[in-house]
Structure formats: structure tokens, C-alpha cells
Amino acid sequence: MTIVTRRSVSNPESAGLPALELPTASEVALLENGNVLRWWRASQGYNADGWACWKTGAELIIERDAMPARQTLAAYNNKPALVFSAATQLYGAGLFPTDTPYSLVVVGRAGPNDNAFLAGATKVGNTNKSMVWHTGATGDGRVGFTHEYADNSGPQSLIATSANRFFTDGPMCIIGSHDASNVNKLGLRIDGGSVFNGLSSPGGTSTPNTSPDLHVGGVNATGSAIGGGMDGGDIAEILVLNTALHLNTALRDTVEAMVNERYALW
Questions:
Q1: Is 201 exposed, middle or buried (0-12, 13-18, 19+ CB in 10 A)?
Q2: pLDDT given at position 57
Q3: How are strands ordered across the β-sheet holding 143-148?
Q4: Is the N or C terminus of the chain more exposed, i.e. has fewer CB atoms within 10 Å?
């Protein structure tokens, strides 16, 4: 336990040191919540070799050629984000939940690429994709959330045909969630607004995700149907949960409060 005391005057020995960023009430609530499995933040746990989870230390490592560049950007309310190029992509073995409801929260921008993969779990080829991605004309802000059936009989996809923030306007908060046991199997929210709150399976058999490996910034290294890397895009936050946030609305409210407090998105 660390006890922090605020003093009424500045300590001259602290001159020139970076300010200590204390967690807000909503951040503490998420750090203590057992449904929040992983939480990567650009200002936490980043170095030249990997990006460590704020809660557990689980690391996303280089999957292609290099780490993204960390920059403080005005679009993120002057908070850090990781800026991706065509050569950068991250990967974490066993870091995505399987056989359970799940949610994936990304605060970021896909960049100018069409069909750019932001984050999710994939296998080689077209099977078992659970992902959030940019789906539309260059820079138009369209995003989607896709959960592939385990038998590869077809995906469930929810696509936001418009969004409050295009790439040039700043980042979006994207929440994709899935629960195979509930009639509302898929949910997608953008910037705190209900884009979709559920979709029954249109065909095939809806099952839990079976791909345990998390990819960020592009598809798996051997390729997939989604071919766009995040060249010129950026990400500030990634959260992975073992609950469907289109059903667990109290926890969703806490996530969205944290995002808006930090990045002033809406």
C-alpha cells in the first residue's frame, strides 16, 4: 500500500520532477473490479520492448517490427497515446477471455486506413475473430465489432454507420461485448451512446470466444480477412473484461465515466 499526502506548499527538492498522477475514483473502482481482467494505458507500463497491463503486469509485445511511438496528443486531452505505423503491431498470448462473456474497450483512432484492425482475438485465416475495427471509407469514423462463430459458419457483426468523431476530429471510445448465453448476444457502443444494445444470432450457432490471443494494431502475423494495419492511428486505452457491458450497465457506466473524465470525449 502507498499512502500519498498532499502538502500545502511545494517541496523545492521536487522541482523539475514530473507530477504524480493519482487515480480518480472511477479508475480505482475499475482497478478493484474483478470483471476487469486487463487494462493497458499508454501512460502506464510502456517501454521499448512491450506494454504492461496496469492491473496485472501482463505484457503486450512486438508482433511485427517495432513498438509504436508514445506521444502526448491534443486529441487525447493532452494525455499520452501510442501512435502506430505500418510496421507496428502488438500481441499477447492468452490475454483474451475464452468460454465466458467478454467486452473489449478501446479508446483510439484507426487512422486513415480502410478496414484497419484496432484490437481483438484472431486465429490464422478467417476463424474466430472477436475484434473492433474501422470499416468504411478512409477516415470516415465507421467502426464495427465482430464476433465469429466457433464453427466458422459466419460472423455476427455490428457496424456503426456514423460516429460522433471522425479520425480527424479525435479518438472514439468503442465498447464491443458478447454473451452467448443471453438473447442479446452482441453489443456495440460508441462515445457513450447506444449504437446497438444487442443482436440475436442471425444464423449459425453463437458460442463463446475460443481464441485466447490478443492482437493490437493489426491482424495476426500470418494474415486474415481484415487486412489493414493501424498505419497512422493511435490508441490510449485498452480494457478487456469477462462480462458483457451491454448487459452489465453499472460497470459500463463506470468505464464511460473514467474515459470521459480523462479524455473529455463527450
A1: middle
A2: 97
A3: 50-52, 59-62, 90-92, 214-216, 117-121, 130-134, 143-148, 155-160
A4: N
pLDDT value of residue 261: 96
Measured CA to CA in angstroms, residue 146 lies from 177, 181, 187, 223 at distances of 9, 17, 10, 17
d(CA 104, CA 71): 23
Instruction: State whether residue 253 is helix, strand or coil.
Output: helix
pLDDT given at position 165: 60
Q: pLDDT at position 260, please?
A: 95
Please name which of 152, 153, 198, 154 lies closest in space to residue 175, comparing C-alpha atoms.
198
234: left (phi over 0), alpha (psi -120 to 50) or beta: beta
Whether the CB-CB separation of 81 and 194 falls below 8 Å is answered with no
Q: Cβ of 22: how many Cβ atoms within 10 Å?
A: 9
Cβ neighbours around 23 below 10 Å, total: 12
What pLDDT does 223 receive?
A: 45
Cα–Cα distances in angstroms (integers) from residue 127 to residues 10, 134, 146, 209, 224, in the given order: 57, 19, 11, 11, 9
Could you give the maximum distance between any two Cα atoms of the chain, in Å? 66
Give the Cα separation of 6 and 262 in Å (integer): 21
Rounded Cα distance, 23 and 202, in Å: 42
Which mean pLDDT values do the consecutive 10-residue runs of the chain (266 residues) have? 60 66 91 98 96 97 91 95 90 92 93 79 66 74 77 71 65 90 82 78 70 82 56 94 95 97 92
Report if pTM > 0.70: yes
Q: What does the alpha-carbon distance between residue 210 and residue 206 come to, in Å, rounded to a whole number?
A: 12
